[in-house]
Structures are given as C-alpha cells and as structure tokens.
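**Sequence with structure:**
===
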Amino acid sequence: MTTTDLDTGMDFDYDVVIVGGGPAGCSAGIFAARYGLETVIFDRGRSSIQRCAHLENYLGFPTGIDIETLYALMHDHAEVAGCEHVSDLVESVTPTGDGDGFTVELEEGEHVTTRRLIAATRYGGAYLRGLDDENAMFESYEYDGEERERFNKEYAETDGTTPVDRLYVASPSTESDSQAIVAAGRGARTGITVVEDVRREQGYPDPVANYYDWVRREEELEDEWRDRDRWEQYFDDRMPDDHDLEEADRLEIREREIDRRLEQYIDRSDRKRRRIRGQERLLEYVDDERILEAAREITVKRESDSSTDR
C-alpha cells in the first residue's frame, strides 16, 4: 500500500521496511505494524538462528523448541500483526531524492521505497554501504590470517537509532549478538523507537510521545478513569507549556490518544475469547499425532477419575 509523507507529499510504498526475518526483525515488525504502520519484512539471507539445532533457552518453551516451528510462529505472529512478508534479498539501500526515506533494491530486480528502514540481519550489512561514513559503519578484523570487514556492532544506539535519519539497527549489535531471546528484545526496543519517532512526527510532544503496547483488564479501570474527562486532564497535565500545536491539532491528538488507551482495556469475555483463540492457533503447530495421543491420555484419566469418585 502506498503511503504519503505529510511533510514532503512524496508517496512511499511502505512506512517501514525491515531487512531480516529472525527474532529481531519479526519483533520490531510486530510493534510497528500493530501501531498501524505499513510494514514489510524482507527475509532471504543467512539466518543465524537457523544454524541452531534446537533452541533451549527461549522463554516460554520449557523443553525447548525446534527452529522450524519457532520460525513459523514468528512469521505467523508478524503477519497477523499486519506485516507483509516477502522472500527476497535486499541488495542495496539508497536515500530517496529528498532524503526523507530510502529506496530499497531487491535481488529480483525490483525496488520499493520506505520512510524508515530497520536493519535486522546479524550477518552482512553490506547493503547499507553509502548511507554513512563507512569508517563508522564498518570495522576491520582479522580472520584466519586475513583482514576482513564487517558491520560495526556498536554503530547504533541501544534504542536502535543511528546517525542516519530514519535508519535503525536492531541487529547486528553487541547486545543481541548471539542469543535469540535478546535479539527479540532488541527488535522490540527498536520497533518502539520507530513508533515513538512516528508519534513525534504526528505532533505528539516528547512528554506524550512515549509508547507501550499491552492489553489491560477492564476491572483495573478505576471509577475516576472511566470518565473521559479524567483522561483529558491527564493528557493536558503532561503537555508541555511551550508546545507549538494549534488548538485543533492538540485536541485531535488528545482524543486519538485517549481512544487508544481506552481500547486497551478488555472485559472477561474478551479475555476468554482471546485465550481460546491463542490456544487454538498454537495447536496448528502441534503434530496431529501428538494431539490425538494427548486426547487419548486425557480420556483415560477422566474415566479413571470418574471411577474413583463412584
């Protein structure tokens, strides 16, 4: 889908292009897409996680998980969140003519444009050449007696930002170099950074540009917070006195943010529906024979418990 930059009027194919579909890239994509940004993940390079035989330390899988299943789950999650997934290799990235975005050249010969780009490939990085001083972006190292060059893992800040406007790096980085779960966290942090930068462009001053993405229980919404006037007061109290928004724009942003906050509270029936939907989705990744075997064991146990209670 083509999107239009509000400042330049230029049409872009995407709000966010992510290079790399591992834990870092998919995690960043989920946060970006859930905010409503048109997001695509290009994934056809060397994936470090696919070199792992069986992942033993990814939280939530007590006996580990095979890489094929985890990879499928990550991509499924990203696509459900709204990401487009394309199996193509990014060859190069160049700034657009106005410098407010990037043109991404693909191996198949096509190209797309994007407002923002997230690098999320542990290996490589050569596609980023020319975007900045290469002495800062790349570093030399010795391997097997030969001098080689690689992307500098310390090039990006911990929040994913870089010296190049609208370029973010989730991987490679020192923090997420070798553990999948840390890479996913780094991707999430970078995705949130992108969203917060977008919110600033949408007019949110810094004190209200911060972003979080979570769903809360409706019963936690205390009486005073059920009143929209209370949220308006909360928003107004956080607005800096020196903001330069027109009053109509300020009110529009305030109402939009209050709507978003209130939509994050869900009731018991909605929680139950989401829980069932989540479990049913996970069953799609379990071998049918394992499901049938578990069902037989449950039936036997229930019959045994029933006999004992008589």
About this structure: The two ends are 63 Å apart (CA to CA). The chain has a mean pLDDT of 91. Residues 69 and 285 are 7 Å apart (CA to CA). The first helix runs from residue 23 to 34.
